[in-house]
Write a structure and sequence with these properties.
It comes from Neisseria meningitidis serogroup B (strain ATCC 13091 / M2091). By secondary structure, the chain is an all-alpha fold. It has one domain. 64% of the residues lie in helices and 0% in strands. The longest helix has 13 residues.
């Protein structure tokens, strides 16, 4: 998720991890569904198809949010989660 935001915006990994939460990333993804980032458009134009792999669905996101207590994470909780998953 963070890698996609970095590739789409040019932001650094640390900036995304420090400044975006799941709802904001969700809103960016909604926008990008209607207005794809340039690298997605170029890949499509060139006929490059994404590799088949796991796709996170809204159900997966809802399940993850439920497992985390169903509310918003504090910055410390979010960072702890990212560290636990080896993302940062």
């Amino acid at each position: 998720m963070i890698a996609h935001v970095c590739a789409s915006t040019g932001w650094t990994w640390d900036y995304v991890a420090d400044n975006l939460d799941l709802p904001r990333i969700g809103h960016l993804n909604e926008y990008w569904r209607e207005h794809p980032p340039v690298h997605i458009l170029v890949a499509s134009y060139m006929g490059i198809k994404p590799s088949a792999g796991p796709v996170q669905s809204e159900t997966d996101e809802a399940e993850a949010i439920g497992m985390l207590g169903g509310g918003e994470l504090s910055e410390d909780e979010f960072n702890a989660l990212l560290k636990a998953k080896g993302i940062i």
